[in-house]
Amino acid sequence: MKIPASELPLTPDGRIYHLGIFPEDLADYIIVVGDPGRVPDVSKYFDTVDFTHVNRELVVHTGTLRGKRITALSTGMGTDNIDIVMTELDSLANIDLKAMEVKPEHRTLNIVRIGTCGALQKEIDVHSFIAAEYGFGLDGLMHFYQHGEGFDDEMVKAFVAHTGWNEKLPYPYCVKGSSDLFNRIAFDMVKGVTASAPGFFGPQGRAVRVPLAYPDLNSKIDSFRFGDRKITNLEMETSALYGFGQMMGHNMLTICLAIANRVTHDFSKDYHPHMEKLIRTVLNRIF
């Protein structure tokens, strides 16, 4: 069935609308970062950079690493941006943009997010690398889509009961990431459940001038246990990445550098050398 132009817009020359690139500009292995300025921090380790493009906060560098093609891409902050980026990445891979029809053969993307986060467990040191076995959404985005297998409704029910989750807040969701990418790249890192909030301040328990409606929410989150699982850290993108990966058939992994511990109130004085180490580690292990 032909997809209407209003549902998947393209530029006048046929590029995907927001990313602004053609299918041939995208590799099967993709490093995503929130910060546009971090894209060159990743691609400087490529053997070659053959393509670059910038549109708004979306920066794309595609090149080669050890003889294989690889893309570095910025998403900007928040799951609302992930809604755009993942839909367009999947469309580049699996939609014939000239015929505007789904391709008969599925192309699987391997996407690793490198980001920063705040640790929610007191034993996790600042500058730890935290790999998300699960993405736990506090943002509600995935409930705009039909989803089935791969979403852990039982963990969500237990979390809602434990926290006394207020009905005014978006209903949570939980999605498992790629075991293959995790075992290949993150085998020696802190393992946990990464929660994605719909904001940086209030939704993550930070109050500056406006009082919080749920000031004890973070303490309820960090005390939650579901079997051997616990929520290890807070950031703003992983749950949507994992949700779309599950629904679209792509392999997803998030690894975050903890630049703060929200329990002990420690904050990194300079996290940049540790981010460089994380980038090099991921690139050395990605394929």
Structural description of this entry:
This protein is of the alpha/beta class and 287 residues long. It has a single domain (23-285), classed as Nucleoside phosphorylase domain (Rossmann fold), CATH 3.40.50.1580. 24% of the residues lie in helices and 29% in strands. It contains 7 helices and 14 strands. Strands 7-12-10-8-13 form a 5-stranded mixed barrel. A two-stranded antiparallel sheet has the order 5-6. Strand 3 and strand 4 (68-74) form a beta hairpin. Helix 2 (79-94) runs parallel beside helix 6 (238-248). The longest helix is centred in the first third of the chain and has 16 residues, at 79-94. It is globular. The model has no long low-confidence stretch (mean pLDDT 97).
Oligomer: single chain
Q: Count of helices? A: 7
Q: Can you tell me the CATH class?
A: Alpha Beta
Cα distance spanning the termini: 36 Å
Task: Give the CATH topology.
Answer: Rossmann fold
Order of SSEs? EHEEEHEEEEHEHEHEEHEEH
- Any low-confidence stretches, pLDDT <50, length ≥5? none
What structural class should be given to the helix and strand makeup?
alpha/beta
Radius of gyration: 19 Å
CATH architecture: 3-Layer(aba) Sandwich
Overall mean pLDDT stands at 97
Instruction: Give the percentage of residues in beta strands.
Output: 25-35%
The CATH superfamily turns out to be Nucleoside phosphorylase domain
Largest sheet: 5 strands, mixed, barrel
- Number of domains as seen in the coordinates: 1
